[in-house]
Design brief:
disordered N terminus, 8-stranded mixed β-sheet, elongated, 10 helices, Zincin-like, disordered C terminus, 4 domains, Immunoglobulin-like, alpha+beta
Length: 610
């Protein structure tokens, strides 16, 4: 039961500096954990002291914990989902189903106390429900103390032991973790292999492990205590919403300063094409200022690139990546995961609901950065070409689902991947087209600086984009995010009339957009036209020499205008020459073209501007 109150209060975190919160309160955590790792058995025991700050206006009568390691057991929801979905992740497949007793993962809770009093709890797969001995009142805190023991699963997905490159321990989602509670309630999602959502807080973690291991972890190393057989590494991290670590006897550690106040630390095995890791350093030094100029300042003092896991996965101040790659692939996965420091680690959206604001935004800037690093002709207009191609394939195959679908509940992995990475990235490309590059760049920085450390949602992002551009954009988000409708415009006809040449356009897809139209004359002269969409209540800034036309009302499937040029003087007519608009069929955007014979439904005797 939850007693709800008025939202939108600005609250001061206990023991922390107040952060201005536009229309949002949020919970806070402080973890202090000590674990003793038995590397031979792949098991560890742990204690956890968790201070939970209820900054909400609600009274809480229960809390929830995530027990992620429990997913790596035959019959778990992750196992069943992977074996029944039509296109399973090849890294998972039926591997969980075949894990032996010494290969599965688990968390066993030995005791749990709330402010010194034992509490009742029940475990259902990866979620533990705790019935509190006393409710947590608004603006108060409680302390939970737990003893637990865990087994590290054979590496299947993200976390685990002995990955395919021989890394002993990739320790992600490794501890009992309190679920997030926000303005819409609890988010205690079962773990079936997708994304995460957690409250911010501070972590103080001590890891005791055999002396031969080198440890890499979120945060800064505060203390290292060497004993006869084991070493304890104590790490601390402030204002993060997760903690990852990895350990391997063969790690080398390389520290590279990339700017004042920021070091990159690289951890990798010496047999992992080490020369490529060294070559990557110069690319990182070049990429960081490029990213910060567009996305905002990275707020932490360190970032760690750690060989481990099963591909690439983001965590606060760190990533786990596989290392057996070409140089470009190694740089690419590192840039992608580092960009998650903005689009998830600092902004902290609910990834299960707004995955496209995480993976999609990342994809856009990842591709832009790689274009900058590796393309001599930067900026390239087709840096999102692969995303467009994949989007087009999924849409035309009929597999697309709206981007309001919960991440765990897509019918296919392909549809989820397209929505989160590809269509999510194309969201930004379309917005850049809609509002203009200058307003778009300013809006992205404003979004980051306004909402960092505050869990923004889709509406928060939309509002920032509208404020910076001065345009009405709700229609775009309604169409693009909440439906599977598409954009498709065509040049329908170019014909000679008494006053000049008439250019007729038609909207074949359902999503309306403002249009850029380029007319190229046979002598090489180019005429640029911008046709606003009525729903935007304005238009993006015009380029030099660009001609503003009358607006196109969304209810009309057609539009025409006359230019004072003879038809035989026209070399071509093209819609969106920049190809930033995610048009489903670029082939019919240009005249002359064999596809220009387009039927215009409801065409009157004479087309007129709308």
């Amino acid at each position: 039961m939850v007693t709800r109150g008025i939202l939108g209060l600005s609250l001061i975190f206990f023991g922390f500096v107040a952060i201005a919160q536009p229309d949002r309160w949020q919970q806070r955590v402080a973890y202090k954990m000590e674990i003793d790792m038995d590397a031979e058995s792949n098991q560890f025991s742990g204690t956890q002291e968790l201070t939970y700050y209820n900054n909400s206006p609600d009274t809480l009568f229960k809390v929830y914990y995530h027990l992620y390691f429990n997913a790596f057991q035959p019959g778990s929801m992750m196992d069943v989902r992977s074996r029944t979905i039509s296109d399973p992740d090849k890294r998972v497949g039926d591997r969980i189903y075949h894990l032996g007793a010494d290969e599965i993962g688990y968390h066993k809770i030995n005791s749990l106390f709330q402010d010194g009093k034992p509490v009742d709890y029940s475990i259902d797969g990866t979620v533990m429900t705790v019935q509190l001995v006393a409710p947590i009142m608004p603006n108060t805190s409680v302390v939970f103390r737990m003893k637990f023991e865990s087994q590290v699963p054979l590496q299947v997905r993200r976390s685990g032991r002995d990955n395919k490159e021989g890394i002993r321990l990739s320790m992600a989602q490794w501890y009992p973790k309190l679920a997030e509670y926000d303005y819409s309630g609890w988010h205690a999602y079962d773990y079936v292999g997708r994304e995460f959502y957690s409250p911010w807080g501070d972590f103080d973690v001590s890891i005791k492990i055999d002396n031969e291991y080198v440890v890499a972890a979120t945060g800064l190393l505060k203390e290292e205590i060497n004993r006869k057989k084991k070493t304890t590494y104590r790490y601390a991290a402030e204002n993060v919403h997760d903690f990852v670590w990895a350990a391997d006897p063969d790690y080398v550690r390389k520290v590279v300063n990339v700017r004042d106040g920021l070091d990159f630390e690289f951890y990798y095995q010496t047999d992992t094409l080490a020369d490529r890791w060294v070559e990557m350093e110069d690319y990182i030094k070049k990429a960081v200022p490029f990213i910060e100029e567009r996305c905002g300042t990275y707020p932490y003092p360190v970032y760690k690139v750690i060989q481990g896991g099963d591909g690439g996965m983001e965590y606060p101040m760190a990533t786990l990546i596989t290392g057996h790659r070409s140089l470009k692939s190694l740089v690419g996965v590192t840039i992608h995961e580092f960009l998650h420091s903005w689009y998830q680690m600092v902004l902290g959206t609910n990834e299960s609901l707004y995955y496209w604001m995480d993976e999609g935004f990342n994809t856009y800037y990842d591709n832009l950065t790689m274009d900058y690093l590796f393309n001599e002709k930067y900026p390239s207009k087709d840096f999102m070409k692969s995303s467009y191609k994949y989007y087009n394939q999924i849409v035309t195959s009929g597999l697309e689902e709206p981007m309001t679908t919960h991440a765990d509940h897509f019918e296919t992995n392909k549809a989820y991947s397209m929505a989160s990475y590809r269509k999510g990235g194309l969201t930004l490309q379309n917005l850049s087209y809609l509002v203009g590059s200058e307003a778009f760049d300013a809006a992205m920085l404003r979004y980051y600086n306004t909402w960092k450390f505050k869990h923004p949602n889709a509406t928060d992002f939309e509002v920032i984009m509208e404020k910076e551009s001065g345009l009405e954009l709700s229609w775009f988000f309604n169409y693009w995010i909440q439906s599977a409708k598409t954009i498709d415009y065509a040049v329908a006809d170019v014909s000679m009339e008494s006053k000049g040449t008439s250019i007729a356009l038609t909207r074949k897809g359902y999503i309306p957009m403002p249009l850029d139209v380029l007319v190229t004359l046979k002598g090489g002269e180019q005429l640029s036209y911008h046709i606003p969409l009525g729903m935007t209540r304005g238009h993006r800034p015009l380029a030099k020499g660009e001609i503003l036309m009358t607006e196109w009302k969304w209810v009309n499937p057609y539009y025409s205008f006359i230019i004072d040029v003879a038809k035989d003087q026209i070399e071509s007519v093209e819609i969106d020459p920049s190809q930033r608009m995610t048009d489903l069929d670029f082939q019919n955007n240009k005249y002359p073209n064999s596809n220009n014979e387009v039927e215009i439904q409801g065409k009157p005797e004479k087309l007129e501007n709308n």
